[in-house]
Amino acid sequence: MYRLVQFFKRYYVVFLFVLLEAGAISYYAHSTSYTRATLLSGAIRATGGVRKGFAAVGDYFSLRRENRMLLERLARLENSLQAAAPGTDTVPSAAAGSPYRYSTARVVSNSIARQDNFFVIDKGTDDGIEENMAVLSPEGAVAGYVRKCSKHYAVCMSVLNSGFSIGGQLKGSEYFGSVYWNGTDPRKMTLVDIPRYASVTPGDSVLSAYSLRFPPDRFIGTVISAKDSPDGTYLIIDIRLGAEMNTLSDVLLVKYTHYEELNSLAGEHFADTQRESVR
Is the N or C terminus of the chain more exposed, i.e. has fewer CB atoms within 10 Å? Predict the structure, then answer.
């Protein structure tokens, strides 16, 4: 009791000030209808702002879960569409359709600042993940491919890796070449072997082509600029990478069921294996 009395004696001026301020504000608020309306409007705006802030925080924490659910739906939809027989409205078993099978995973580790970058996903052989499966961003852009697997995890080679290469084709054009990363800017890749007389315009899309791992026509990036090669026989094209590798969190995996057969037959002749074989 003594300490409580001493506390009030020490801070009574503060309490008196707060009490007088509260009384003044209450008197002002009820003095006229205009002041009541003004204060009520301000209170509503303040309350709305607080509620909006809490809603934004809740949306942020639920966004990742919703994105993963949407990606899983996309994988199921891709499997259904790929399995559908041409010219029919029915969806037979996956074995009767396309050789591509889709699944999802979450990125648990990633790097973009090295010369040879990799990322790790939270699924492995127990989940049906296999080596050489293609990895796409949630938007469907080329992001890498599975290099090694354990039971519950898999290590994937990133597009930002000096050993990565993929066949690339200008959208709407018959010309194709090889796309690789030059080890500098994580937002850019390079397309080579396009004939110098080909029509190339900044903003043109570059899509996957003649790849063992990746389905055809998957987005790689957009053309930034083009210049002649040192010998003048082909173009060196800088492209802006379509996949946001520094924010990659959920991915779409694609299994090509004919990979082993084609790779053993003519793998060394495909563009997405040539750079690795040379190294």
Answer: N
Rg (CA), the chain: 30
Tally of CB atoms within 10 A around 240: 16
Cβ 256 vs Cβ 100: under 8 Å: yes
Give 197: exposed, middle or buried? Use CB within 10 Å, 0-12, 13-18, 19+: exposed
**Cβ neighbours, 10 Å, residue 264:** 8
Q: What is d(CA 149, CA 15) in angstroms, rounded to the nearest whole number?
A: 67
The string of DSSP codes covering 173-184 is SS-EEEEE--SS
* Dihedral angle over CA of 93, 122, 114, 248, nearest 10: 70
Task: Confirm if 68 and 105 have CB atoms less than 8 A apart.
Answer: no
What angle in degrees, to the nearest 10, is found between the helix axes of 2-29 and 33-83? 90
Q: What is the pLDDT along the chain (279 residues), one digit of tens a residue?
A: 667 667 667 766 777 777 777 777 666 666 666 565 665 556 546 655 555 555 455 544 545 666 666 666 666 666 666 555 444 333 333 444 678 899 999 999 999 999 999 999 999 999 999 999 999 998 899 999 999 999 999 999 999 999 999 999 999 998 889 999 999 899 999 999 999 999 999 999 999 998 889 999 999 999 999 999 998 889 999 999 999 999 998 999 999 998 888 888 876 666 565 454 333
Neighbours of 67 (CB within 10 A): 13
DSSP state of 85: P
Which residue, chain included where needed, has tokens 């930002």?
A: 160
